[in-house]
Amino acid sequence: MHWIVDAMNVIGTRPDGWWRDRDAAMARLVDRLERFSAETGDDVTVVFERKPRPALRSTVIEIAHAAKRGPDAADYEIVKIVEAHAAPRTLQVVTSDRWLGDRVSAAGASVFPSSSFRDRIE
User: Fold this and answer.
1) β-bridge partners, 47
2) Class of domain 2-121
3) d(Cα 53, Cα 59) in Å, to the nearest integer?
4) In angstroms, rounded to a whole number, what is the distance separating the alpha carbons of residues 118 and 33?
C-alpha cells in the first residue's frame, strides 16, 4: 500500500500546540511516518504546504511540498501526484478535506480520514 499524507491535516487533528512551532510539528510527523513505514512496510509520501526549515530528509519515506504557495497548496500537489501515478487505485490519500477527497477518489485513489490515521501512527 502507498499512503499519500496531507501533512497539515494530520498535524492539525490534535490541539497539542503544533501552531507554536510548525517546523517542529512537521519533523515529529516525519518521525512518526518513518516508524509507521518501517513497521508496516507500506510506502509513504508526506506532502507539506511549504518546505520545512531546516529541510527534512528521509531514507524511509518520501517528503514533498507544494510547488506554489497559497491556500490548499498541498491539496493541489496531492491531486497532481495521484493523477500522475500509474496505478492510482493502489493509493490511500490521508486527508480531512472534502474537496481533495472527492478529487482523488475521482482519479481512483481511496481516502482515509486524517484523525483515524493519526491514531494509527501514534
Assistant:
1) 6, 64
2) alpha beta
3) 18
4) 10
Handedness of CA 88, 46, 74, 115 (dihedral sign): positive
- For residues 10 and 95, the answer to whether their CB atoms sit within 8 Å is no
Contact 53, 26 (CB under 8 A): no
Q: How many CB atoms lie within 10 A of CB 122?
A: 9
- Model confidence, pTM: 0.94
- Residues with Cβ within 8 Å of 42's Cβ and at least 6 positions away in sequence, in order, are 1, 2, 3, 36
Q: How far apart are CA 94 and CA 92, in angstroms?
A: 6
Q: Residues near 101 by Cβ (< 8 Å), separated by ≥ 6?
A: 93, 95, 111
Q: What are phi and psi of 48, to 5 degrees?
A: -100, 155
Cα separation, 106 vs 20, in Å, equals 36
Q: What is the pLDDT of residues 58-79, one digit of tens each?
A: 999 999 999 888 778 999 999 9
Domain ranges of the chain: 2-121
